[in-house]
């Protein structure tokens, strides 16, 4: 690899044999190195090869202001999250998560503790991401000799949710609120609670997560719906469909948003399965 720019003694920007920009990080990896020098990937503790030019630039800027161990920890968390969730995550998570970990540690050292008012909803709606958050909390506390509160696990989970949604702006808070609002509508309409560990509840929340993503990213192009299937489902599950119509009225009143027939169809199916499982 050829060095493009040493950022500090521990971080260097280079190009590989495929002419891709990479960021190499490691203790003393750039010591006495200059532009044009060769550098071996084996000399670095971590090599970042990112496809998003903006994220690559942001990572360079972050690495000049953060101790490298925070980025290394974020990378460890992201690698673990990809395995657990079995999905790709937005590259921007390297930036947001490393910055969040650093800020959280600094706040704790300064005597400021963040209260997460959405913790209970995060635990319900994003169980896998929350477990990753708890493990991350253990790693942070062990690495930096702090004792961050459990609230931080929820905030870390929201960063992971944002990376799953892969949007240009952070919308995890808004998505969580919308999931909460729709879930409460279903709960109050049928006067019953639902087990957060059930398969139907998991599928329901997953559907709502991506429904909310379309909602907040203005991706409101209606999908084609089979009119016969729509009539069949709504007639077969009238209670679930009545609940969906109430949800539609609420969303239209609060957000001036109309649910497409396609979303009405699948939301009706998910609600029917949810209440059927709850009733046994």
TrEMBL record:
- Looking at the record, the residues that make up the PRD domain are 65-169, 170-280
Q: Does the keyword Lyase apply?
A: no
The answer on whether this UniProt entry bears the keyword Repeat reads: yes
| One Pfam family, short name | PRD
Q: What keywords were assigned to this record?
A: Repeat
Question: What top-level branch of life does the organism fall under?
Answer: Bacteria
Protein name per Swiss-Prot or TrEMBL: PRD domain-containing protein
């Amino acid at each position: 690899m050829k060095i493009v720019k040493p950022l500090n003694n521990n971080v260097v920007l280079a190009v590989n044999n495929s002419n891709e920009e990479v960021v190499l990080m490691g203790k003393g990896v750039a010591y006495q190195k200059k532009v044009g020098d060769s550098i071996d990937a084996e000399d670095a503790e971590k090599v970042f090869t990112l496809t998003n030019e903006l994220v690559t630039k942001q990572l360079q800027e972050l690495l000049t202001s953060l101790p490298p161990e925070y980025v290394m920890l974020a990378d460890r968390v992201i690698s673990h999250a990809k395995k657990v969730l079995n999905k790709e995550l937005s590259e921007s998570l390297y930036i947001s998560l490393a910055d969040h970990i650093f800020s959280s540690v600094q706040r704790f050292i300064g005597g400021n503790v963040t209260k997460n008012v959405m913790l209970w909803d995060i635990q319900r709606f994003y169980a896998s991401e929350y477990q990753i958050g708890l493990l991350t909390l253990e790693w942070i506390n062990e690495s930096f000799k702090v004792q961050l509160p459990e609230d931080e696990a929820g905030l870390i989970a929201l960063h992971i949710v944002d990376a799953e949604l892969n949007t240009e702006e952070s919308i995890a808070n808004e998505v969580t609120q919308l999931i909460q609002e729709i879930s409460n509508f279903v709960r109050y309409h049928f006067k019953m609670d639902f087990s957060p560990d059930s398969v139907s509840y998991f599928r329901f929340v997953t559907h709502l997560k991506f429904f909310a993503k379309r909602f907040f990213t203005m991706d409101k192009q209606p999908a084609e719906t089979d009119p016969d299937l729509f009539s069949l489902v709504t007639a077969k599950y009238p209670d679930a469909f009545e609940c969906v119509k109430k949800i539609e009225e609420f969303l239209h009143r609060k957000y001036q948003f109309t649910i497409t027939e396609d979303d009405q169809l699948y939301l009706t199916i998910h609600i029917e399965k949810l209440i059927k499982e709850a009733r046994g």
